[in-house]
Amino acid sequence: MEDPTAIGAPLDPASNFVQVLCCVCGIPIAPNAANTCATCLASSSDITKGISTECTLHQCRGCQRWHKEAGKWIACDLESRELMALCLANVSGLKATKKNDNRVRLIDATWIWTEPHSMRLKVRLTVQKEVQSGTILQQAFTVVFIVRNQQCIECQAEFRQGSWRALVQVRQRVAHKRTFLYLEQLILKHGAHRGCLSIETFRDGMDFYFPDKGKAARFISFLENVVPTKVKTSKKLISTDDKSNISNFKYTNLVEICPLCKDDLLFLPVKVARKLGNISRLVIVKNISNLIHLIDPLSGQTASMTAESYWCDPIRPIITAARARMTKYIVLGKEPVVIERNVSKKRTSRKQRNKLATLSLAREADLGANDKQFEERSYVGYLMKAGDVCVGYDLTEIQFVDDDAEEMRSAGKLPDVIVIRKLYGAVAAGESDAAKKRIWRLQRLDVEATETAKSSKAAKQEAELNGMDEEDFMREVEADKEMRAQMNLYKSSNDIPKKAEGDVEMANDDDDEDDDQEIRLEELLDGLVVDAGPDPEDKIGDEVEYFAEGEKAAKDGISYVGREGARQVREKDSAVPKSSFGKEYDMKDFKFM
Q1: In a 3-state reduction of DSSP, which class is residue 497?
Q2: 178-190 and 213-226 are packed helices; what angle lies between their axes, rounded to 10 degrees?
Q3: Which letter, b or e, does each residue of 578-591 get, where b requires 16 or more Cβ atoms within 10 Å of its Cβ?
């Protein structure tokens, strides 16, 4: 603190000013309106008069956001500069108005520790004010902010019926739900469901409810980037105001997903096969993105079909990828098929190596009954070795709906077996509890199943079908590395067997037996807690970052009074005279107002 007598000290005798005595302490000072020195004026003045020392802040208990102004809510961390600015904006008297010409200058603001469950925030403010010409007083005081709970508009809409403004109905006309299980993982990884009020699931699709049209449009744009779709939009008039020409609508968007699914067997028309690079007419759907990726199961040739091309001339699969249509086979042996692509190179890179192989197969059901075997070429033959179990389509005991495909099958121009994928782990061994022994798990969306009037028998059958679809989807995931790259896999709570731990460190010396599709432990993520409800970041929209006491304030350049120092802080200090406005605070980089 500066010497109080410095301001009220006697002037130079040679000066032309006339000195008067202070009416309180009697020291000679320059004449002023109160004829009082700065020290006596500070002891009898209160420059914080008119500034509120108790304010109210409203916080939404659901999303933890703070109310800023009419209809606006912002997300702020405790002890952050954003919350400090919000607190200072709610303190009345800091800014001069027409009714109150209180020209107070804010010099410093400091957080004071409060009990976490007290619903209170304390800020130590330091202000300066010029009470007379050349007399500047500085005073520090504490402002208490009472935190009240109040629901924001978005959280109110979640608990209110009929509050949605845009509905996105996603449908796929197939007999299974594997596509929606895959779409659910994509939504979780990219956070596309944020801002959604509620989600309902059906046997053939899902409904997403949004509070406004813009969020629904962003979600539809996400769907168009991950799956081939076509969209139909309609709107319904809810209310209208003829005087102001304002109308309220509810928008409904029907998003239909292409009915082709992974591992479906197609028999392309001649024109379509020629447009796709003269590929074979018998192809398999390798995977689905915003394009339909096809592969020839005998030669490995690939092609892609756009959603527009498909919807112009829809193609119906001759065999859908259902568990009932697949047959288990045992691999008896394999012989690599070498196709020289560039003879000038001495060595072919691993990415360009041929993955075709001729497999010797036998039906699992025929073992011990007959010696019937099949020898067919497969694009996944590089994954197989003797003793492995795989699934495929048996074309010898099936009749196609397509006339051209049935004619070629009868003429013997189609292969007898088309291998789809390899089975891993307990599924290959045929164990009944194979699903419980997996070392990985998937996260699920928080959805509401629609309640329909069904008998107990029908409900039980539907639950069995859903469980079968989930198991089939799990088998697809553990056999396709490219598919796993689009989703997050988490470590299971089950004990990981030592054999699985050894797979991480095992070196593959033989490239022909290198299985690059099997799930590795390094692909799995930590931190999934089953049945723990939605994550907090799904509501706020940002990742949650935790700070220790006073750490966030120090990061934002704000002073902080800890638990011990908070007990010694007084509610209001006496005013002290200063020679200039905020001279000791000139080095502060942060500005509050």
Answers
A1: coil
A2: 120
A3: beeebeeeeeeeee
DSSP states of 251-284: EEEEEEEPS--TT-EEE--HHHHHHTTS--SEEE
Mean pLDDT on 296-307: 91
Q: Give, rounded to a whole angstrom, the gap between the first and last alpha carbons of the chain.
A: 26
The pLDDT tens digits for 372-391 are 899 999 988 888 889 899 99
Please say whether the beta carbons of 34 and 4 come within 8 A: no
Taking only the tens place, the pLDDT of each residue in 345-376 is: 444 344 434 578 899 999 998 888 888 899 99
Average pLDDT over residues 453-474: 83
CA dist., res. 264 & res. 471, Å (int):
17
User: DSSP H helical segments within 123-253, as ranges?
Assistant: 153-158, 178-190, 213-226
Query: Angle 178-190/456-478 helices, nearest 10 degrees?
Result: 60
pLDDT tens per residue across span 536-545: 444 444 445 6
CB neighbour list of residue 304: distance below 8 Å, 6 or more residues apart: 276, 291, 292, 293, 294
Contact assessment for residue 346 and residue 353, using Cβ atoms and an 8 Å cutoff: no
Tokens of 562: 């800890």
Return the residue matching tokens 């008067």. 20
Residue 563 makes CB contacts below 8 A (sequence gap 6+) with 113, 549
H-state helical runs in 282-386: 307-312
d(CA 214, CA 205): 22
pLDDT above 90: residue 122: yes
Distance CA 221, CA 353 (A): 37
Joined together, the tokens standing for residue 250 give 């509810």
Please determine, for residue 504, whether its predicted confidence score (pLDDT) is greater than 70: no
How far, in Å, CA of 587 to CA of 332, rounded? Answer: 80
Write out pLDDT tens, residues 57-96.
999 988 889 998 877 889 988 888 999 999 999 998 887 6
* Cα–Cα distance, 552 to 559 (Å, whole number): 10
Q: Which of 17, 145, 164 is nearest to 89 (CA)?
A: 145
What is the SS3 assignment for 515? coil
Beta strands in 60-215 (DSSP E): 66-69, 72-74, 105-112, 120-132, 135-149, 166-171, 198-201, 205-210
Supply the DSSP string of 406-440, one letter for each residue.
HHHHHTT-S-SEEEEEE--HHHHHT-TTTGGG-SE
Closest CA to 90 of 48, 128, 54: 54
**CA 38 – CA 430 distance, rounded (Å):** 93
Beta strand 28-29 with 198-201: parallel, antiparallel or unpaired?
unpaired
Count of Cβ atoms closer than 10 Å to residue 216 Cβ: 24
| pLDDT for 299 | 87
CB 152 within 8 A of CB 62: yes
